[in-house]
């Protein structure tokens, strides 16, 4: 049986860097990332208008969720050259952002971070199972006039 440990603050630091890099490269406007904090509620996900969730496995267990308001996604899609503003496009881009941010984390943590296909949903549409046992971290960030969150709830397998 494998044993896991919660992520450390040093492990979490890869995610704010991924957020900054994503927004700068995709929109040419940097995000302002604030300090990550531990969530003190039993559920690991902050729900906003649209959410992209990536479940992870391999040497990890848990999930990474990008949660953003509609207005932010309108602006991101416009900056990416997509002018069709539909719920389907908002769901797609929320899932794609979660996928990109998880992929950047995979570069840091290594190939043992297996990333599932993103699951996108609107607020309240589905419940995401709590797969990790350690604390969940919210990483709030502002882009333009909008606030979004990346919620990281991961445990890392301990090697003996």
3D structure, described in words:
With 160 residues, the protein is an alpha+beta fold. It has one domain (4-155): Chemotaxis protein chec (3-Layer(aba) Sandwich). Helix content is 32%, strand content 32%. Strands 1, 2, 3, 4, 5, 6, 7, 8 and 9 form a 9-stranded antiparallel beta sheet that branches. The longest helix has 23 residues, at 87-109.
CATH architecture, by name, is 3-Layer(aba) Sandwich
By CATH, the topology is Chemotaxis protein chec
Q: Helix/strand/pairing class, anyone?
A: alpha+beta
Mean pLDDT: 88
Number of strands: 9
What is the number of helical segments per DSSP (H or I, 4+ residues)?
A: 4
Output the helix-strand order: EHHEEEEHHEEEE
Blueprint (SSEs and pairs):
Blueprint: E1 4-6, H1 9-12, H2 14-27, E2 32-33, E3 37-38, E4 50-58, E5 60-68, H3 70-79, H4 87-109, E6 113-115, E7 119-122, E8 137-143, E9 146-157
Antiparallel strand pairs: 1-9, 2-8, 3-8, 4-5, 4-6, 4-7, 5-9, 8-9
Question: Outline of this structure?
Answer:
With 160 residues, the protein is of the alpha+beta class. The protein contains 4 helices and 9 strands. A hairpin with a 2-residue loop joins strand 8 and strand 9.
Task: List the keywords.
32% helix, Chemotaxis protein chec, 160 residues, 4 helices, nine-stranded antiparallel beta sheet, alpha+beta
